[in-house]
Amino acid sequence: MEFDAVVLAGGGSTRFGGVDKAMLVLDGMTLLDRVLTATEGSTSTVVVGPVRTTYREVDWTVEDPPAGGPVAGLAAGLQRGTAPIVVVVSCDLPWLTKDDVSTLVDGLGEYDGYGLRDSSGQEQQLATAYRRTALTEAIHQVGDPRDKSVRRTLAGLDIAWSEPTRAGDDVDTWADLDD
């Protein structure tokens, strides 16, 4: 099934002391390149954030205004691509694989979205495949997407979730890299 990928990579990495989390290296590869490897089956890939060096060619965009938060990033990313399914991932999912992305797309079924739970069972809206129409409408309903909550914005969508998996574990602190 055709899908586009939107990779959110514009956060301030405040818990990392301002270090660019997307460019942190784990096992010889940046966190961003690890996610780009997992999503390389996409029809198009757009990274929302400042342009960086990556192992493969992608489109780049930024939210308007910059630093407007993840919902603003989603709104900017949805302006690219045309596939009916959009896989939305944050750049800090180092254990996400191509198989996990296939599971997201294949699991969509009749739902608006199908997402990963992290290893603790937390639902990860930024590790989810969505129907483009449903995601676009949810963001449209919120109005100005700047500084809006992802959970609140997507609360009206019918989303199914995986069993807990390490693939859904994001890296928010230095300790998360040691797991």
Automatic annotation (TrEMBL):
Alphabetized GO MF terms: nucleotidyltransferase activity
Pfam families xrefs: NTP_transf_3
Keyword Transferase: yes
Keyword Transferase: yes
Annotated keywords: Transferase
InterPro entries: MobA-like_NTP_Trfase, Nucleotide-diphossugar_trans
Protein name as it appears in the record: Molybdopterin-guanine dinucleotide biosynthesis protein A
